[in-house]
TrEMBL record:
This is Xanthine dehydrogenase family protein molybdopterin-binding subunit. Residues 222-300 form the Aldehyde oxidase/xanthine dehydrogenase a/b hammerhead domain. It comes from Arenibacter aquaticus. PROSITE patterns: TAT. InterPro entries: Ald_Oxase/Xan_DH_a/b, Ald_Oxase/Xan_DH_a/b_sf, AldOxase/xan_DH_MoCoBD1, AldOxase/xan_DH_MoCoBD2, AldOxase/xan_DH_Mopterin-bd_sf, N-heterocyclic_Hydroxylase, OxRdtase_Mopterin-bd_su_IorB, TAT_signal.
Length: 724
């Protein structure tokens, strides 16, 4: 295919095509223009070249920009296309946004692992990872339009400028819209190398940093937004699984004939850990599930009681045998020998459930010859953009189409694709019928994947001058990075540090939960600092200020939060304020104000103030919403949420016994200040949540003189601390 298409007049063009896709080479040297209806041409180009197709321009001026990330309420459906539109100088009012195809070589980013492309909406990395990709692609699209306008007017491209979907020639007072250019577009032989210096400077941004309504909110409000659970296909059947609440136990079904005789039952599908049922309707599948008679095998989890395990964790933390060193600087042992005082404490956290609003679900349709598959799913994507389906069916990646949908909550749970695998295995049994698999809330709690239970043993040494000279941090728990991340201190100047992970496992399924290990570990770090401050007669802000002297950006968040909260002013009677600092991509200091009912043990959070440095802020209003949501989710997990295991079995089954924060418990006031910065954007989705536990516990310590060291801070544990 020639890189210069045949030029047709505007009327012919609009009859023939709904628009033009700009296919811009990953290296910026192989752009193509193809009619959006020329599907074979698009396929051919994608086969022949590593190309990125980011934008479609219609003759009426409408612009469609592709979003490569999942949208689960964090705003990526707006922020990433907005970055592209900024460099393209697109009129945002004419922009529509669509999910990109799940093709990692085309739409992936190296932001997660240099040298390896991923489409993975996790770790608060989407904006940071795609920021340079979207800017460069947007600048390339703008250049192509400018190049064609220069040809059309026969003027040097250097005389042209652009604004809000128009190319302008100021010398002759002419302008032409991007839509009017669409029918006459041809491709330049080369494109400039758009280095950072050749892209817009932050002072010139017209969209980035402004208050822009999120693109998907109207459809979510009026009910037209489509989630995977909304998908309905012709001849669709339904699948459910009975997994039990004993993790890793194997099932034996003893009444298969009775189940098959029930109305609407199509097939029973055994799994290593579950029994699957396929039926004509969801109601029939769920009714059959109720009547399954299953004998469960032995499981490694049998005999495990989560609330009784902590003494053994304490023993493991005290063993001289080393675990895996996560981080080490200086000589902690030497510093302890020279110390005038050593502070020690153990901090604990129970299992936490993701509690995403939309139950796990997926729709899978497999061709009758089992050589092609199509999936409709709300997924946080993953290392494999095709979610494991090609390997499962033994077919090429290109034979699997993933239709990404909105997610009704993820928090790390939907970065695991076990539910997609289950749906695929069910669909394989009844191909070519499409199968919708749905996990009930009871399924997800009983056989969930939880933030791990863990223990953090902290030991800090103080020299004769009152300086913090060492900090050792032993993490005991299951899951590696799930319990060990966030234990490193990059912004506190502590000369001797040791972080060590000591592994245990009880056969319970564990998974990334918002901010991963930062929640428990920042809780332990921030609380030990306040216990040191109390013991040394220091102000909690002052001890952090001293430790942050070599980290001015972190210090700026501390100072701003203290100013916002009027830290130095006396607290209202019966209240106290607590502080915590967190780095999770962005840097943030949070201060909360609490009171405690001495009779019931209930903690009330009245106010929360946050100062955040997240680099360039793409969507300020959305970042503030993210921080507010993170604080509220953090409060829910810190004050209420708790999964308990008795004899290997999960005790909670639904929201009547897995408590969440209620509307009456949210703070009266949450205020976020965004610190101006021209640095690369950093993640914000996981910065607020980990600061909550430390801030509340430290406020409690200032109010009562008593430490809180075991999450969640249930009324029973609060009363125990008050009376201890």
């Amino acid at each position: 295919m020639s890189s210069t298409p045949k030029i047709v007049n505007r009327r012919e063009f609009l009859k023939a095509s709904s628009g033009v896709a700009l296919f811009i080479g990953v290296t910026g040297i192989m752009p193509q223009l193809i009619s959006c209806k020329d599907t074979e041409g698009i396929k051919k180009q994608l086969q022949n070249y590593q190309l990125s197709a980011w934008v479609q321009i219609s003759g009426n001026g409408e612009i469609t920009i592709y979003n490569p990330a999942a949208e689960m309420g964090q705003g990526s459906m707006t922020s990433l296309p907005l970055i592209f539109a900024e460099e393209m100088d697109a009129d945002w009012s004419k922009v529509k946004v669509a999910f990109s195809p799940q093709e990692v070589e085309i739409y992936g980013s190296e932001g997660w692992a240099p040298g390896s492309k991923l489409m993975f909406t996790v770790g608060s990395r989407s904006t940071k990872s795609f920021f340079p990709v979207m800017r460069k692609a947007g600048a390339q699209a703008r250049y192509i339009l400018m190049h064609n306008a220069a040809k059309y007017w026969d003027v040097p491209i250097s005389e042209l400028s652009s604004r809000k979907s128009f190319v302008l020639h100021q010398a002759t007072n002419r302008k032409i819209s991007y839509g009017d250019l669409a029918p006459i577009l041809s491709m330049p032989k080369t494109l400039p190398n758009f280095t950072l210096e050749k892209l817009k400077q932050p002072r010139d941004f017209q969209l980035i940093g402004k208050t822009i309504p999120r693109t998907e909110i109207p459809s979510k409000v009026n009910g037209t937004a489509q989630f995977a659970i909304d998908i309905k296909l012709p001849n669709m059947v339904y699948g459910v699984l009975e997994r039990g609440n004993l993790h890793a136990a194997r099932p034996t079904l003893t009444n298969e004939k009775d189940i098959m005789a029930m109305d609407g039952i199509i097939k029973i599908v055994p799994f290593d850990y579950a029994i699957g049922v396929i039926a004509k309707t969801l109601e029939q599948a769920l009714e059959a599930k109720k009547h399954l008679q299953i004998t469960w095998s032995h499981s490694p989890a049998i005999g495990y009681n989560s609330q009784e395990i902590y003494p053994s964790y304490e023993n493991i933390a005290g063993q001289k045998k080393s675990g895996k060193v996560i981080h080490q600087i200086g000589q902690v042992t030497t510093a302890k020998k020279l110390a005038s005082k050593i502070y020690t404490a153990d901090f604990k956290n129970d299992y936490v459930y993701h509690a995403q609003m939309e139950p796990l679900n997926a729709v899978v349709q497999i061709s009758e010859d089992l050589k092609n598959a199509e999936v409709w799913v709300g997924s946080q994507q993953g290392v494999d953009p095709k979610l494991g389906v090609p390997q499962l069916l033994g077919i090429p990646h290109e034979n699997v189409k993933i239709n990404l949908q909105y997610l009704g909550g993820g928090f790390g749970r939907r970065s695991m694709n076990d539910f997609v695998v289950e749906a695929t295995l069910l669909a394989k049994e009844v191909a070519p019928l499409p199968v919708k698999l749905i996990w009930t809330r009871e399924d997800d709690l009983g056989y969930g994947m939880f933030r791990p239970l863990s223990l953090q043993r902290m030991a800090a040494s103080i020299d004769k001058s009152g300086n913090l000279t060492s900090l050792s941090h032993y993490v005991v728990g299951d899951g590696g990075n799930l319990v060990a991340s966030g234990a490193k201190n990059d912004h506190y100047d502590i000369p001797n540090q040791l972080v060590e992970w000591r592994e245990v496992s009880h056969g319970i399924r564990v998974k990334h939960w918002r901010a991963v290990g930062h929640g428990p570990n920042k809780f332990a770090i921030e609380c030990i600092l306040d216990e040191i401050a109390l013991g040394q007669g220091m102000d909690p802000i002052d001890i952090r200020r001293k430790l942050m002297m070599k980290s001015p950006k972190a210090l700026a968040t501390l100072e701003k939060a203290a100013e916002m909260a009027k830290w130095k002013e006396p607290a209202k009677e019966g209240r106290a304020k607590g502080v915590a600092f967190v780095e999770h991509g962005s840097l943030g200091t949070g201060i909360c104000e609490i009171s405690v009912d001495q009779n019931t043990g209930k903690i009330k959070v009245h106010n929360f103030w946050i100062a955040l440095d997240a680099g360039i802020i793409v969507q300020p209003d959305n970042v503030k919403a993210q921080m507010e949501g993170g604080i509220i989710m953090g409060m829910s997990s810190v004050l209420y949420e708790q999964i308990t295991i008795v004899n290997g079995r999960v005790q909670q089954s639904n929201f009547h016994d897995y408590q969440l924060l209620r509307m009456q418990d949210i703070p009266e006031h949450i205020e976020t200040h965004l610190i101006a910065s021209a640095d690369t954007p950093e993640g914000v989705g996981e910065t607020a949540t980990p600061m909550v536990a430390g801030a509340i516990a430290n406020a409690f310590l200032r109010l009562t003189g008593k430490p809180l060291r075991h999450l969640p801070f249930t009324p029973e544990r609060v009363l125990e601390a008050l009376n201890g």
